Automatic annotation (TrEMBL):
Comp. bias regions, Polar residues: 1-10
Lineage, uppermost ranks: Eukaryota, Metazoa, Spiralia, Lophotrochozoa, Mollusca
Protein name stated in the entry: Mitochondrial inner membrane protease ATP23
Organism, as annotated: Potamilus streckersoni
InterPro entries in alphabetical order: Peptidase_M76_ATP23
GO BP field: mitochondrial protein processing; mitochondrial proton-transporting ATP synthase complex assembly
Annotated GO MF terms: metal ion binding; metalloendopeptidase activity
Protein family according to the UniProt entry: Belongs to the peptidase M76 family.
Amino acid sequence: MANPEPSSHGSDTKDDLLSSHKEKFQKSKDEYYGYDLYPEREGDTDMIKQGRDLQTVKCEKNVIWCAEKDPRIKLLMGALKSRGCPIDLGRHVSCEPCNFNVNGGYDPVKNQVVVCKNMSKTKNACCNVMAHELLHAFDACRAKVDFSDLQHLACTEIRAANLNHCYFLSAWETGIAYPWNFKEKHRECVKNKAILSVILVRNLPAVKAREIVDKVFDKCYQDLEPFGRRMKKGSRDAQRAYCDASLYGYTDS
Ligand SMILES: [Zn+2]
């Protein structure tokens, strides 16, 4: 079972987009967990042959860079360590080729973050994927999330979107947020992103995914652990959160 981060970062998710994702991954199986998005996890040898190439090496370098330089990743790794789930990059982060619909994923069975080396090629993209997926790892460690429980899944997707995406400036740039409606637009963006993730992970109809996300939204939207704040793009929020982390017992040393 994997937990994909959709490659579409748009905040204007529409039902037709949602249903096209659903159609694409429609399976006859009763239970769907998105593993076909990560061919190496299913032993697709063609994809494995493309294996350790320059793309892998570059991806692994980016992973190390993010772990050393990105305050969000440093904070999350510290928080995971403080909760008794330390991250060993070689063991817990894997650079793999993926289906073109996803940038990354979290595999709760193997407790591994997947960075899609063919999709998340820049440092920035790699750090964003790691921040999103390590948040899932943090929830799995902290709250013993049951990823097969749709409400648990919806909650961790809401939290990952809330803490790592839908930045104020990106909403501003795309013309959907203004100072007078930012709060409402931010909630809407987080909700849409979470719905899309739930659809990808479990191949649910959009209506059902929306219903589950709505049910847990308010509670999970308010839960800002371990950052304690929502980040604004281009601000020093992430650095501030990292500096404050030791106050909450999260350290990376
Ligand atoms: Zn996710």
